[in-house]
Amino acid sequence: MSRLRRIALTLIMLVIPLSLLIPQSSASPEETELIQLLTPAIRLELHLMSLDYFGQFTRGDTIYEDYLYRIFRMDQGTYASGQGRIMEIRYGEDLITLEQTLILISAEELQTWRIRISGAGYKIEYEVDVLPSGIPLTIRYLNPETGALEERTTMIGEQYIAAVEELGADAIAEQVEMERDEELRNAFRRSYSGARLIGREEVEGPDGPLEADLVVNQIDDGREVVYAISPEVPGSLVYMKVSGPEGEMDVVRLVRVPEHSSDDAPKTQRLAAGSIEDPIVLSPDRYVEGSIDSNGAVYFSFTAPDTLDYAIEMNGNTDSLALVDYGRDASYWHRMRSSSRDEPRLEYPALSAGSTIYVSVERIADGSSPSGSFRLGVRRVSP
Question: What pTM does this model have?
């Protein structure tokens, strides 16, 4: 068992009493208020419980996707687009850092989140596109074994889309809400049955004093856990403190609320179709994704910021698509297709700074599918 996992299990045990689960029933008004206040703590508990499953996710398992669904279908608190939070989770001399950032909300209300979790010899980093219902649709992640940027459409996302087509969005939204309420109620009764609201006080936040509701939870071993909850900060959880015979210590604390600029945009972005007159501009180490129907094409341009070796790479349904280099100047005109249909790639050795190249993604006439989806990016080959 990893050191980070041992820390996470210890922290989880601080909020799980040894009593049996209370049979399911409707929540009282007092219980409903406490559930709403403690939702940030329940989300954090799920983040910690999920740590062991990220490695399995990168190898094809779906348990981590289920945890993401359980986390994101809950109220995420007071995030603005481009706003993040960084929390430190301590146990003794050990430290876990959790960063959660809402980096983009699309016109269709699709939320793109960036998650980073790190500890002693352990690091998780990914971006996830989340539907308004909380369904994680697409995950882009750094493979901890290879360091490569990979992307996967979740199984739960595919199941959700199929269910909406069969039953309708309203019916599915009602089911998601029922599942969320049931999970929150069960989590509260399992882990916070001794909780009570002790009032509102001024506490120290990451940028100075702020007003917070304080909730105290009695643990079976005689210790108390105090949660400071405030809508003035993203995610609402300011700190979690444990007190007992050994004294009081911070276990969880919000340490920073960074604002993210447009430079922190997702590494993969969905496309509107680029035309030959108005191509989509590519940037180094960023990815774009799109799809092509019938005999269409999407056009791109890239201007080298430095003199280096560059490669333009594509993956997706590449059996039906071709990556093509084309020129604007008639004297320079040429069409160079990628040499491999499995991993289309165009290479530009020693491309001079300021030079512009033009490429397109086009459907292959004899492809196995009438349409194709793709992801395209520019990679610096030289260090």
Answer: 0.66
Vertex 75: Cα angle to 70 and 80 (nearest 5)? 125
Highest mean pLDDT among 43-52, 201-210, 311-320: 201-210
Distances (CA, A) of 216 to 30, 74, 113: 14, 22, 30
pLDDT tens track for 273-314: 567 777 888 887 667 777 776 557 788 888 888 888 888 888
d(CA 111, CA 128): 8
- Give the contacts of 172 (CB within 8 A, at least 6 positions apart): 133, 160, 163, 164
Cα separation of the two ends of the chain:
36
Q: Which two tokens stand for residue 281?
A: 């501009």
110, HSE (Cβ side, Cα atoms, 13 Å): 15
What does the block give as tokens for 203? 């506490």
Q: Which residue has the higher pLDDT, 202 or 379?
A: 202
Of 155, 126, 186, nearest to 61 (Cα)?
155
Q: For residues 323 and 340, give the distance between their C-alpha atoms in angstroms, rounded to a whole number.
A: 10
C-beta of residue 47 within 8 angstroms of C-beta of residue 117: yes
In 3-state terms, the chain is what percent helix, strand and coil (to 5)? 25, 40, 35
